[in-house]
Write a structure and sequence with these properties.
There is one protein chain. The protein has helices at residues 27-32, 40-54, 74-84, 101-114, 125-139, 144-161, 172-175, 190-197, 215-218, 226-232, 247-258, 283-292, 296-306, 312-322, 330-337, 341-349, and strands at 64-67, 89-94, 117-121, 165-168, 235-238, 357-359, 365-367. It is mainly α. It has two domains: 39-241, Rossmann fold; 261-388, no CATH class.
Amino acid sequence: MIKTCKKCLYSSIHPLNITFDENMICSGCRVHQEKDIIDWKRKDEELRNLLKVYKSKSGKNYDCIIPISGASDSYFIVHKIKNIYGMNPLLVTYNKQYNTKIGIRNLANLKNLFDVDILTLTVNPNIVKKITRHTLRLRGSIYWHCLAGQTVFPVQVATRLKIPLIVWGAHQGVDQVGMFSHLDSVEMTRKYRKEHDLMGLEAEDLIDEIDCIDEDDISQYLYPDDIEIQQIGVRGIYLNNYIRWDSRKQHEEMIKLYDYATTLQNRTFDTYNNTDCWNYNDLHDYIKFIKYGYGKVIDHCSRDIRLNHITRTEAKKLVETYIYKKPKYSNLFFEWLGITENGFNHIMDQFRNPEFWIRDENWEWKLNPNSVLNEQIISNQKTNYASEYILTGDKYTNDNSGKYIIIGKGC
């Protein structure tokens, strides 16, 4: 039987294996409650002491690596590590190639305002397309290459340049589903990356004669070997183990301090996260809806319920508003990858979750009226909560091409 949390909107079909107690409160909500009892001043001191260990003694090398993008929590992480804690970071970014103009602008603005060095990896677009065709067929994923690149490139740079400390933002398993306690101070692991970020697929698993993927094609996605990592002492820490994480509050601080740009998203009300990608809160999120019966709007609603920004009733109204929305920009992806919409739909039909999708009398897919979604929505009602998210819009750029920007100069 599918369970639904009585506090947030998560259900037991969450792909990160959420659990429930006898009161039907999910593990994510229980771990979130730690935020109200943890001594964050002590955790701040703990982080400061940790960072001191990694500060370059000679001043001739970077103190740490920060993986960034043109959105999400990049500004906040760099602000804390560089301006508050006084570290000299090297920023690294994997070019997902689904870039929006806002994302390109935010990335350039970040580099200019923080006066930092950024190392960017742009993999041959033809190789990225080959890999994406393969992961779409194998896992129903158009985002494997993004997740693989974003999680391996910082580790590759750390080993090559002998910079042992990598600073990440929030650990998804902690912040969403309570897979670990904040008190565990869980760090980056290759095992978690493979099982959850990469859906069980390492780069080596992609070598395939049918899709013409060979060893050269996967070289940029190969994780450094254990011996190399141990020799450098590479470790990755997560800031949400040391700072009371509140994504909405943090973004609004960055908008005020650094003119971070925001924009409307298709399948969620959050105008702050993932604005750098055409697909993340559009086609990629719709794929998640097909496969797991939920979308990013449930993630954002559950997060904001826990942070007391929104009531559960208001959240249910928002889910009904966004969860059924069809992708707006899927044709950009089809054109980029060289596939048809019918071909894409044929592949995705193999990944539809039978808990949520049934065939009607015309053999068309429709949502199962008895699905758990009925417990997560309130129909035909409105809420003004979405308007509380600041919308800066597209005033920062005159690029109106409406295309993926592989490489852009920003501002």
